[in-house]
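Obj: model holo form, ligand = iron/sulfur cluster.
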Amino acid sequence: MTVLVPVLGDQLSFDLSSLATVSQQDAIVLMMEVSDETTYVRHHKQKLVYIISAMRHHAQALREAGWRVDYMRLDNPDNSGSFTGEMARAIERHDPRQIVVTEAGEWRVSAMLDSWETIFGLPVSICRDNRFICSHKEFEAWASDRRELTMEFFYREMRRKTGLLMQDGKPACGRWNFDKDNRKPAKPDLLMPRPLRFPPDAITQEVIALVEMRFADHPGSLEGFDYAVTAADAERQAASFFADTLPQFGDYEDAMLTGERFLWHSILSPYINSGLLDPLDLCRRAEAEFRAGRAPLNSVEGYIRQILGWREYMRGIYWREGPGYVDRNFLNHKRSLPGWFWTGKTEMNCLHQAIGQTLATAHAHHIQRLMVIGNFALLIGADPKQVHQWYLEIYLDAYEWVELPNTLGMSQFGDGGLLGSKPYISSGAYINRMSDYCGACRYAVKERVGEDACPFNALYWDFLARHRDKLGDNHRLAMPYRTWDRQTSDDQTATRRQAKSFLESLNRS
Ligand code: FAD
Ligand code: DLZ
Ligand code: SF4
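Output (holo structure tokens):
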């Protein structure tokens, strides 16, 4: 009798734990395109094309490797639209003795897998997802006896566990962290490396037509879709990153430039998150570049910290905090996002650039997400759950386990500081320092009040004043509060009036 092995859309890895526990002769791999998944948020059109095309290519690669694959397409008229519905139909077709599946990436789907044993009366074996470096148990053991869950200490544990960038039990070259060296602004540079482009093949073109037809009302454009959709092409992009980009990764990690969506970033997160690339393998290859003298330590450590530290830490927090995390709203923010979050049409150039690029490509890099878009949403008091939904629908690499703690936790301070000891807020000065956006903006970045004043400035001070009851004791905000207190009450009133009038104008946009 057969074993049914469902492989979900973010489980596109050959060494998936479920596949490793069954034999090819017994197994039928089940892959399901279902409308529940394509519509639980209004995913960006490029995200839909990427996931569906990568699933179809992966099914083909599994077959070539000798697996029997039962593949359910979205446009099949008998498709029930849900994982559970498709499992029921597959059980009728194959009469399996058992279901073996790798654990799901998020609470919603995890609850579905947990219900299958009862619904189908079959044994369901749920395997640990060993594509992650830290298991749920290990994270719990690290977190359980701590008052503060500081990422830096988690990251050091992971360095010790993996031996990455370690020398005789100590960090290579004596330092754990080179963050301070990694905040250089960038200048336009014709020699900047460009990620590879992967023009759509016949399979992807078919999926593009499907998405154009079925999801016309979803945000984003499909024009110029050129992401990799196979493990082999994702690997080409990884190789190109290590050869041409990694050496400068650290220096310009936080920089932003008009028209330059990639800078010195890897653009590998969609491939890692759906399983086409292995995160630990990428970290080891980055380390090898340092050991061979081809990339400096500030870049290699910075890159490894993002994956070994931030990525694993976010996952740990997501599962530890439980399904109720999504409802946290420490600052009691309730404002709806302005409509131009879905068009990019705003006179604030930084937001116009970051959101415009996001709609065109389903990608923005970390500082655009955190210090332009997220910063603005936080300063205006946007509802963190709505902000979370926007990020989940709009980015190619967005799956709830990684997007939610980044957005609701790190960016919107919805959990009251579990993830970061102070809110990530700034006035226009930070954006001006790290980008070239302000020069071409209709607003004056140095002005706080008046018709031409950069909105971030008054909003920044108004945010601090508005939330003094909750943030006034935060020692990391002591300096800005002191600066605010030194201002005359006339200046404070003018600033708050400016912020109020801007916020009122948003209600009309
Ligand atoms: P690089 O800058 O080249 O970084 C290297 C790798 O490190 C990335 O590929 C990624 O795998 C990992 N990484 C870096 N930062 C983080 C982080 N904070 N959390 C988890 N992994 C990280 N990343 C996602 O993968 N999915 C998301 O849905 C997502 N949502 C975000 C929402 C907000 C509000 C913020 C501030 C950040 C979010 N990030 C998310 C993290 C980060 O922005 C992206 O991982 C990064 O921009 C991907 O581009 P890259 O591959 O070029 O990254
Ligand atoms: C995100 C996504 C989308 C848009 N579509 C599918 C799909 O049709 N079939 C599928 O198996 N997976 C899809 N996914 C990814 C799943 O939502 C993801 O596997 C779950 O979030 C589990 O964590
Ligand atoms: Fe953004 Fe203000 Fe700079 Fe304009 S002036 S780009 S609104 S930070």
